[in-house]
Amino acid sequence: MNTQEWSYRIKSVRQKRRLVKTDRDKQLIQFDKRRAELWQQKRLLPLVPLEHPYQRGWKRFFVLREDLKHSPRTAFYETLLAKINTVEYHYDKTFKRKKRPKKRYGYEVKQQLLREFSIYSWDAKKVNLTDDEKACFTCVETFDVKTRRVGIKYVFTEPWRYKLKVTPHMITHIKLMDLDIERELSYIADHIDNHNLEPRINLLTRGRGYRWSGWFYEQNKYINKIKNIPRYSPKEAYLELET
């Protein structure tokens, strides 16, 4: 019997399975869109001042040197500093960190530099600098040891005009919390984590379905516990896995 000749067409088993899978994928896409909307709403919530501000570590940034604040171009360098300044935070006022493993044991002061621009940002006019400010930068060729690639960046030629300043990092405002947004975000996160839906959502929305280290970890129910046990191990080695 040919179902193509009928006035209406009966769906095959394969078509029904495909419809179920397509409908489920549409639901996952809606989950991702709703999560993005909630994140945006959470990001736009206003800041609320604290009744009792408190200190949370230290922050370090660049300021103009005292002996250059009376020069004719003080306003120019102050404006430029607002565009290339960097801020770092640390729990210790000395901003020291442990040395790399290949070096001797001890601590070293963490290096902090002014903002540097890549060649793409420079050519795409995304740096928001005037012609006079661009004249203060020079093109430098760099070599990345990890990627073994040669790159080009634009560096400020007169960093001696600024110095680092360390001040307490005071928390004076906090983000306003919306319980409805937090509740719905928690529900979506639990549903995605419990059913391991993040790789599928990532494949549907961004086209990258492979596993990133640190992003998609293997769940406990998918881990083969007896994989690393030797073949001729005693029975007690398998019984310990059940406890």
Write up this protein.
- With 243 residues, the protein is of the alpha+beta class.
- The chain is built from 7 helices and 8 strands, in the order αβαββββααβββααα.
- It is extended, with a radius of gyration of 29 Å.
C-alpha geometry: extended
Element order: H for helix, E for strand? HEHEEEEHHEEEHHH
Number of strands: 8
Question: Sheet with the most strands?
Answer: 3 strands, antiparallel
Which quaternary structure do these chains form?
A: single chain
Strands of the biggest beta sheet: in what spatial order?
2-1-8
Number of helices: 7
Query: Helicity range of the residues?
Result: 25-40%
What share of residues are in beta strands?
A: 15-25%
The structure class reads alpha+beta
Q: What is the typical, i.e. mean, pLDDT?
A: 86
Poorly predicted tracts of residues? none
What radius of gyration results from the CA coordinates?
Answer: 29 Å
In angstroms, what separates the terminal alpha carbons? 58 Å
Describe the structure concisely for a colleague.
The chain has about 240 residues and is α+β, with helices and mostly antiparallel strands. The protein has helices at about 15-45, 75-85, 120-125, 130-135, 180-195, 200-205, 235-240, and strands spanning about 45-65, 90, 95-100, 105-110, 115-120, 135-145, 150-155, 160-175.
